[in-house]
Amino acid sequence: MSLIIGMCILLGCQFLGEIISRALSLPVPGPVLGMLVLLIGLLIRGSVPASLRTMGEGLLKYLTLLFVPAGVGLIQHFGLIRQEIWILIATLIASTSVTILVTSQILQRTARQRPAGKEEEA
Amino acid sequence: MNALGLEQIWVYLSASPLLHLFATLLAFILATYINRWAGGTPLLHPVIVTIALLIGFLLLTGTDYATYFQGAQFLHFLLGPATVALAIPLYDHRERVRRMLRPIVVGTITGVATAVISAVGIAMALGADPETIFSLAPKSVTSPIAMGIAEKLGGIPSLTAGLVLITGVIGCIVGPWIFRLTRVTDPTIQGYSMGLAAHGFGTAYCFASVGAVAGAFSGLAMGVSGLTTAFLLPPLVHLLGL
To answer: Which residues cross the membrane (chain A) (predicted)?
Structure first.
């Protein structure tokens, strides 16, 4: 029964998220708003119900499997990909490297300004 | 059994959702074994191998994507509730977030802006199609959120899904190298940067190769940057009138 309750909480939040997204015609995907709804709910409640944790963590554990159906959809874009393959590869490598570089440097600089934090684990 | 019988069975199976759902799960198990056998290299990430196996299977059997998706949609549907479930790790890390609020806010906004602007800028400079650019913009965000954003922008969600996966692989390869070169040793910073730039792949890498703190921060970054991108990117694109 607990899996069903957990799934109902997740689907309920997603449902609310979709309604909010559509009603206010927000450019944010429904499930993302559902995630916010759930986060606010958890903060108000002060704990994660066991049923929700079982279902939610089960889904997150296999999150990578859930990407597969969409990823196979690449098969429809072979034409586009072949045409722009070098653009795509160059963009992805350059942009990902720059993002990691900038983020880590900014974090290092802003984190240094706070009183030296303790590192519990290396 | 004669050839005609086999053919009839194939006709039945190839039209029912059962075959392709089953094939997806089997391919995933096989890919997990292949990755373990290859020593867990991010180049042969289970998801990439699964997708390659399935694309090969569809090409060999001459099946079109719509038929495949009839079976796979049951897994695809779970992306929605899985996105909602990302609230659980975010909630678990609320204390840490409060303690590091300033660096996290500044780092997330700069990081997300860098990810989006560099992707769009480079692709535009190289002369990519608008559809490709919209599909590239959310590439650093975890797939379920990225696909939602691409759809809202007018990109191609399934192309985005693939680009997101490749971004994850690239992040796992260049990240450790960048940290060594710039002497970033703090596991919280390594984790947060990896999660922001390379979503779930970065998180998995951090848990496996850096440590638990880095992994937790990476997961946090994945959730926070996903939310930030989802809220900032579509209005930004509308504003730019792209």
So the answer is: 33-52, 59-79, 85-107
Note whether B191 and A107 are within 8 A (CB).
Answer: no
Which two structure tokens, joined as six digits, stand for B74?
Answer: 């049951």
Q: Across the interface, do B84 and A63 touch by the CB < 8 Å criterion?
A: no
What is the H or E stretch that residue B156 is in? Answer: none
Question: Which residue's entry shows tokens 């070169």?
Answer: B181
Tell me the domain boundaries of chain B.
3-77, 84-240
Contact assignment for B122 to A38 by CB distance below 8 Å: no
Most distant CA atoms of chain A, gap in Å: 54
Query: For residues B198 and B203, what is the distance between their CA atoms, to the nearest angstrom?
Result: 8
**Distance separating alpha carbons of residues B77 and A57, to the nearest angstrom:** 17
Say which residue the tokens 């990810």 belong to: B115
Cα–Cα distance, B24 to B8 (Å, whole number):
22
Residues in B touching A27 (Cβ below 8 Å): 152, 234-235, 238
ipTM of the complex: 0.84
Residue to mutate among A25, A86, A104, with most B CBs inside 10 A, is A104
Q: Which residues of chain B have pLDDT under 50?
A: none
- Residue length, chain A? 122
Q: What average pLDDT does the segment A34-55 reach?
A: 93
